[in-house]
């Protein structure tokens, strides 16, 4: 490993693009095993490993999940659809085996499980991409979380956090620019609103230019416009607290 | 990139160990820039980029954060301490710039920000390790989140999710075994309790053997025992819901 400069790992990380069109080639068992092994190697709070991932390859069931996630065609078409669940159920079984009646849980344990699932999934994504596969996260798995619970037989104290399409890419999308580094990283303290607004403005200009070039001038948008639209009440799955409560999570 | 088999990226992912002892060498600006660029390259829900990371290098402030995170010496000793925050504040600024009074938010937006911060942080961890650096996540940043807010000047709609020590490793810890793959990955549906209990038992045996060998027989523990202890009420930061509410998050 080099102690400085660029390397194959960083090149892989920086090359990430979400892939929404896949070749029909299956993900092999060897690839899947490496992907899950990489997921398991991620950090986990005090080794609690509070996540479970469920893989769907059957075309009819992929179609069913495509419907449940907002009719995203790539969910039906990807050869492997992974559903990442934040999961305290296995821990409860272990703890009960030690004679505890009920496992204590609260907002902190919900965060622990959510973070554990996310770190594992991101390692899986990186591993998949290093194998020449493409992925896209599917937040739409939270569109109908109760139906997903039924579909997968998820027990109490687990919930579907996001899906992930995996397969051989059949497209090569551009990389959309991100916020300036200074907008997401700060030294010593959180930046002032004035500085943030300046960075957002800079990014709005960059993204608006990017869209204009790619669309031959047809698309006029920027980050602030997109975010105002994205964060409208209708787009914000107002059922999640109720779903989590139904799954037995305590939001206190 | 190979289409199958092992590669440098997967080797890096599988080689992860948490590092809690660091050489005094600083993390260079070049390394930090690559680490943050890798973080920014991670997937983010609809490009919301709902996280901010704050870097601390000043020794006195690292000492202060060591105290706030449960007197973890490595927090004071690592040359760079990163604090990863789930952050909707920058989004609110952007949305307000579009003439919206207040950004809508709920449990879903809390999850979005928490996941975004986690995916970015895991990319940063992988990038750091590829550069020969070591890292450890510090959940202890949630021990005193209100004090962390004050220390960093965190605005409403952001909260400290975890810290991360970064530096040149001065130790080479063993890799503790994880749960069997079959315990965290399932095909088609969630596994039965009987199957999970079997896997947990297998893991308890493996981990108990691992501890016995490493401690010359002195340490008798296993995963279930550790989890029962870890998940006791006292260890589960009962203040997180209140903290989030104080930071303006809606838990509904």
UniProtKB/TrEMBL annotation, chains A, B:
It is an enzyme of class 1 (oxidoreductase). Keywords: Flavoprotein, FMN, NADP, Oxidoreductase. GO terms for molecular function: FMN reductase (NADPH) activity. Signal peptide: none annotated. Its EC number is 1.5.1.38. The keyword Flavoprotein applies. InterPro entries: Flavin_OxRdtase_Frp (IPR016446), Nitroreductase (IPR029479), Nitroreductase-like (IPR000415). CDD domains: NfsA-like. SUPFAM superfamilies: FMN-dependent nitroreductase-like (SSF55469). Belongs to the flavin oxidoreductase frp family. This is FMN reductase (NADPH). It comes from Paenibacillus phyllosphaerae.
């Amino acid at each position: 490993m080099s102690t400085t400069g660029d390397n194959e790992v960083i090149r892989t990380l920086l090359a990430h693009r979400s892939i929404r069109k896949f070749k029909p080639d299956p993900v092999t068992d060897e690839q899947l095993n490496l992907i899950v092994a990489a997921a398991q190697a991620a950090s986990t709070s005090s080794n609690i490993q509070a996540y479970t991932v469920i893989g769907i390859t059957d075309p009819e069931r992929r179609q069913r999940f495509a419907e449940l996630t907002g009719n995203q065609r790539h969910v039906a078409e990807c050869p492997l659809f992974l559903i990442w669940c934040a999961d305290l159920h296995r821990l409860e079984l272990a703890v009960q085996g030690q004679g505890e009646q009920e496992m204590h849980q609260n907002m902190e344990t919900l965060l622990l499980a959510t973070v554990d699932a996310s770190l594992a999934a991101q390692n899986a994504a990186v591993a998949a991409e290093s194998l020449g596969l493409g992925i896209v996260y599917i937040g739409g798995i939270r569109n109908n979380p109760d139906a997903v619970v039924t579909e997968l037989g998820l027990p109490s104290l687990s919930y579907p956090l996001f899906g992930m399409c995996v397969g051989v890419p059949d497209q090569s999308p551009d990389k959309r620019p991100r916020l300036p580094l200074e907008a997401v990283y700060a030294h010593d303290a959180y930046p002032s609103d004035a500085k943030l607004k300046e960075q957002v403005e800079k990014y709005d200009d960059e993204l608006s230019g990017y869209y204009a070039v790619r669309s031959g001038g047809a698309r006029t948008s920027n980050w602030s416009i997109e975010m105002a639209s994205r964060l409208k009440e209708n787009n914000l799955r107002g059922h999640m607290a109720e779903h989590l409560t139904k799954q037995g999570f305590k939001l206190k």
